[in-house]
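User: My instructor asked us to take a sequence, write out its structure as tokens, and then describe one feature of it. I'm not sure where to start. Here is the sequence I was given:
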Amino acid sequence: MAGIKMSGLPLYRRALRQPHHVKRVVQMMRDQGIARVYKQVKGKLDAGMAIGYSASGVVVDVGSEVTDIAVGDRVACAGAGIANHAEFIDVPVNLCVRVPNGLPDDAAATVTLGAIALQGVRRAVPTMGETVLVIGLGILGQITAQLLKASGCRVIATDVDSDRIACAQQNGLDVGIKAGGDDLAAQILKLTDGYGADAVIITAASASSDILKEAFQSCRKKARVVIVGDVGLDMAREDIYAKELDVLISCSYGPGRYDPIYEEEGADYPLPYVRWTENRNMQEYLRLLSCGSVKLGNMLEAPFDIDRAEEAYKALTGGERKPLLVLLGYPRASEERLTSLQINKPRTVDRSIKVAIVGSGGFTTGVHLPNLIKLGDKFDVRLIVSKTGLSAVSAAERFSAAKASTNFEDAITDSEINLVLVSTRHNLHARMALAALRAGKHVFVEKPLAMNESELDSFEEFYSQNPEGPMLMTGYNRRFSPAIVSAQGILKGRASPLIVNYRMNAGYIPGDHWVHGPEGGGRNIGEACHIYDLFNALTGSSAVEVHAVSITPGSKHWRRDDNFVATIRYADGSVCTLTYTSMGNRNYPKERAEIFVDGKVLVLDDYKQLSVIGGQGGWKGLVADKGQMHEMRVLGEALTTTGQWPISLKDQLSASQVSFAVQGQLLK
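Assistant: Let's start with the prediction itself. The structure tokens for your sequence are:
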């Protein structure tokens, strides 16, 4: 409901509610220009978002490493952006649990809500005989009250809705108090012999901090207050100091939440050390449902068929009797699963380069697709392939592609497609690019081309066997920027080697970000390869020697592989040095280069300006231009007119080879 309410707000009101995003957007506008960033932001918002985060269903397929779940099992699944409202969902193993025999699918579909409530109760650490106050009797409050009863507690709850209080009392609530009447704290004192509640769990949702104040006032000394619901967090010292209260936040489903290694990569926490993970919370909630310790009978209603989804959401927005819980139901799926969809109104063009886009993330939809549309005299975007149906369809509709798909095979088996543009996470680049090349398609693949020597060797082997094979272009866009093109003109005919000092103030990325993991390969392989290619372009020569040294981190906060200096010597005698660091300040320009040659100094300032000291020429722009538009223009000309590869295979392989050499020295 929060997502639906936010989606109905105009852009400026969304900005007022999310000032941290506004600050980032303002900085992007300074670097990239107002019009470009506005289109990116608006496009992301217009694309919509997947809704839903709790589901049950039947397994139709499993990954190769899954051992405890099989095709045909009934399972319950959790996760925003994962357990979406959809006929088919793709769920990491730690967000999926088997449903006990005899437990209906409709009850099992509440698994996420139950795990959230259970984690809130665990944070309160209730003991048998304690009095616990629950504030808010929505579905989370209803389940929380029952979990506390199962723990042997005396449970008092309050809500503005009398029907919700009555519902909870039918399920064992000891005392229900209608909110908005007499002073809540005074009533709690009367019910607890003047001491106050041993613990309070807040499951209400309100922007006001008054709920928090009421909770504090209702507590005994040294009590615990657990915040599960989204409430205002302004606290007055006098409300908590004298009683020495413990104020605790409950993080969603439990330990593992928001940890990509646990949730996305499937690494479990050992049970002896972390007894209750989010997965084990999900399992326990379903067990409590199946044995009758938690009852949903007076809250569950017949599911709305998915075709009535709009009606289902309207039921939650008001009316005389607003349900506590709404279920959406899907018809049983056939053996044949839908992975592609024809878009109703594709663009009516017939250009020579028909493109399949694989991966429709923010960079692709904000940069590559708008550029391809602008170059409509050359490119015709026919197919968008993405991991989820929503992102594929929304991008296809926005950019008037003919078809959307979640199946990569569609990109390489479609006889119409000439060019496959791969813009997924890094670990898929080489595999997908090679598959497309082997299918006879030209390929544009975002950097890096490969994650290791073995993948890189596969490209070399392919072209040794297919010297006239399809064109391959890695997205090394910096060499096509106006500033670098200008620099190459000045360097043409130089008499001396180059000394190039390049500094990248890359900005800090936390160690658990996907960029550092198996999907990203680290920032040297995943980003610094841009600069190794740029050195190739500037020198026009081959790397013959690579030296790299990193910092010795004093703590795990800083990493070796994104704080280093790499020096590369080239066959023509040039020496190029990259200083790559995440330790700088984001307010300082990201990229700067100094090129020393023939008594001149060329200074590149963040791709906004190229200055020449001791010579003529240079370039200046209003915003940073890193060459993404020009690389597509050159690619279009290569495929339709010149046949000349925009970047030689040798240079593309070399950029990765240098990154691997650097990586090996950083990790010694």
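For the description part of your assignment, you could build on this observation: Residues 116 and 253 are 4 Å apart (CA to CA). Try explaining in your own words what that tells you about the chain.
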